[in-house]
Amino acid sequence: MPATDTSPLADVLRTAEAWRGSGRAVALATVIETWGSAPRAVGSHLVIDSDGNFEGSVSGGCVEGAVVSEALDVIETGKPATLEFGVADETAWQVGLSCGGRIRVYVEPVI
User: Fold this and answer.
1) Which of 56, 63, 94, 105, CA to CA, is 20 to 30 A from 2?
2) Who contacts 51 (Cβ-Cβ below 8 Å, separation ≥6)?
3) How high is the pLDDT of residue 1?
4) Prediction pTM value
């Protein structure tokens, strides 16, 4: 019997595949760059469906809400977006990383 991949990425991809298979529109968010003490490593993923459901993590809960909101726009428009979060940007008082680091997240539609 072949081994089943139980990595976080495999979980996110299985969820994306299941959601797409059921007819849901889906976006994938990926950490593409970090600075300082970012809570998730480059390559961490979050998958979001058109109802705002999500699986995975790009920040350990610090900015997931903002990423989900942007992902809904990406799903609607079909245009990818790059987001940046940290303590020194204009959203620091609305959305920030409690650890003080910064992250850049790429959000793209899954077709």
Assistant:
1) 56
2) 24
3) 43
4) 0.81
